[in-house]
């Protein structure tokens, strides 16, 4: 049974106060109590604890109905957080303050034809060195680092259990990364779907809701799920593999080894295949993934009928897949993100809204809102920085699962 | 944000103690503390509260390492609970003790060609009168009643928002039921998927796990989901409509108004259609649903190749649908139930295990167990009796969401 303990509650109160300080920038204890619906006594305890740990400090005085009250904020000095987003073609390291401001970013290209773990690890290390150099800070100011890699990864052991894009099985990635990175802190490894979900919970479009689904559209596709404000990891951190639910029985081969998966139609290589089917001689067929998506955007801008048809087919597939999510989970919010979505959102959003409506049960459709995830920068690096913040809390004697 | 309060914890502790007393029959405070992992102080508080409310009493003395200790049990007298399962063709009312022993049951047939709410309400009332007569008890001993109806229902308002089988929209069922039933207690209305899930949590195959999915196979099909021991309702109590996820794009018309839904292939009318496609002249084609399923079982027993093909096609469809659930939610346990499954489980289970394996991601497959839901009687009536127990707790001043 999952009976929740007093320490769970304590962690969740701390999470609520921290999140509120992050979103509001500055607040009095009274304002924190109102915003979090915690008691003023609880807020006072949590704030004292965070002040003792050096994570929260007083930045000014407010006055509420005659009572002077301190304005509190996250203490941004001196620690920094790093979030890294590793995908097939790049490793992006971003530097954040403790209050999750995006400060610097550095991207290293990865050769997607070389699947050696050492190559990927070297790319990550170069990206991290790059962002530290750009920020002109020394490695000992890094309080925590979170690194997202595709596929199934176990945060507890740091093992990449399976990464279909690289054909990795049981790669102990954390040990290799820690050896190469030469930081004073351990690495939190996770999956991009988990990262975008925590980013949406902490920094996304308004506070958490009953059931929230974040849809990541890129080379691979998948969803992150949060229910009642908590990340759904599944039994072995593998929940959200929506990209490998079946769209077409005995359909296109998928890199997971099965056939007809959503990803085989909606992921960028799947879109390339759709274009090749529609127009084998189209100039965009042979382009590399990011150039291909740029060509799709260009074609849509220029009213290329082939690109319009490609978009329609991709959106239709996407709508079938999202309709299933709506009917199975009855979410109140579906938020889209990912590099492919970012490049094509102007065209995707209006079509998709109508198409999902045709696939969803009426009652479930009535309560769901489909929207782009509005986070200033890469939600994967932001989410991994949030996991890194958790490590900082733990080392300050405040053990806490942030979600 | 969903920050959990001290009263949530209190309710969950009460739930854990009650569930443990229900499953173990009799236990000392010390045994309850060990089994629930609650502190002995918490167990002592919760037990005192439940004793004050008359729900738990001392039934004997045990001795643990020299210390005498009272053996506790649920106080079964005098209240009874009723759980009602309403489906297209029947209304079954079952009577339970407060410790959820199944005492009596009465079924009224329903005419599935008459979709008037008054007809269904009359059938429910007759089933309830029938079970009270069989038990020879007066209506004032009924401490709570839960009634499950197909489709989307809102427990808070008692409205059947949409029932595709009856073509109901916004029917205020609770008012009509309460007027007709003439009991002293209010009616808890819910959906069979929610009922089977709480039944699995309280009475199913072992304690709750990380992510549990209960699959209900009958005229309609759907799943119930529990994560970390808590029922997933979705935003408007409509989570679990797996029967209306898409199996075949532009496939068979479904009674929900869409096409190609899982239910259109795996629900009993869908199986009837598959048989009609395979062998239009087969003697079972024109049978009523329950006779049809009996004929399928008989044909499989007699090695009828047409029925074997029908079973294979149905299991293949089921496996596609369940593979999607495994890949999306990464559950550790999938439990099957429902009247169709009950009749055909000997044939379904071995085929299904292999077929699901072909549809699931390896890592997610490794951790999931596919098994029949082992609850002695109808899990829908049992689940609705658990919701009724919640009403009893609330009236004793122990407000509690049982899951």
From TrEMBL, chains A, B:
GO MF = kinase activity
Regions annotated as coiled coil = none
| Oxidoreductase in keyword set | no
Checking InterPro entries in the record gives: ATPase_NBD, ROK, ROK_cs, WH-like_DNA-bd_sf, WH_DNA-bd_sf
Give the record's keywords alphabetically.
Answer: Kinase, Transferase
Write out the similarity annotation: Belongs to the ROK (NagC/XylR) family.
> What's the protein name?
Putative NBD/HSP70 family sugar kinase
User: From which organism does this entry originate?
Assistant: Microlunatus parietis
């Amino acid at each position: 049974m999952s009976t929740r303990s007093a320490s769970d509650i304590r962690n969740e109160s701390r999470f609520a106060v921290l999140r509120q300080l992050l979103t509001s920038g500055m607040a009095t204890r009274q304002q924190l109590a109102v915003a979090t619906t915690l008691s003023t006594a609880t807020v006072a305890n949590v704030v004292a604890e965070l002040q003792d740990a050096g994570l929260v400090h007083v930045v000014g005085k407010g006055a509420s109905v005659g009572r002077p009250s301190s304005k509190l904020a996250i203490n941004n000095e001196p620690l920094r957080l790093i979030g890294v987003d590793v995908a097939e073609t790049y490793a992006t390291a971003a530097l954040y303050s403790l209050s999750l401001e995006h400060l610097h970013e550095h991207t290293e290209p990865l050769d997607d034809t070389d699947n050696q773990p050492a190559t990927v690890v070297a790319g990550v290390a170069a990206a991290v060195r790059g962002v530290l150099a750009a920020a002109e800070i020394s490695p000992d100011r890094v309080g925590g680092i979170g690194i997202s890699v595709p596929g199934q990864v176990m945060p507890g052991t740091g093992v990449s259990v399976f990464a279909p894009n690289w054909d990795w099985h049981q790669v102990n990635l954390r040990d290799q990364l820690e050896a190469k990175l030469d930081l004073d802190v351990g690495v939190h490894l996770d999956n991009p779907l988990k990262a975008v979900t925590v980013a949406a919970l902490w920094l996304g479009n308004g506070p958490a809701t009953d059931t929230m689904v974040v849809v990541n559209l890129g080379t691979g596709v998948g969803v992150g799920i949060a229910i009642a404000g908590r990340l759904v990891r599944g039994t072995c951190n593998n929940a959200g593999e929506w990209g490998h639910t079946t769209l077409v029985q005995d359909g296109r081969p998928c890199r997971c080894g099965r056939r007809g998966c959503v990803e085989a139609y909606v992921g960028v290589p799947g879109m390339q295949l759709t274009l090749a089917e529609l127009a084998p001689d189209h100039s965009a067929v042979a382009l590399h993934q990011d150039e291909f998506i740029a060509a799709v955007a260009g074609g849509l801008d220029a009213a290329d009928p082939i690109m319009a048809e490609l978009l329609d087919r991709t959106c239709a597939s996407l709508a079938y897949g999202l309709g299933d999510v709506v009917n199975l989970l009855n979410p109140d919010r579906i938020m889209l993100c990912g590099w492919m979505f970012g490049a094509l959102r102007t065209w995707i959003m209006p079509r998709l809204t109508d198409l999902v409506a045709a696939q969803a049960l009426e009652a479930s459709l009535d309560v769901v809102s489909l929207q782009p995830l509005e986070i200033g920068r890469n939600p994967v690096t932001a989410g991994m920085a949030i996991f890194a913040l958790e490590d900082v809390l733990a080392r300050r004697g405040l053990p806490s699962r942030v979600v």
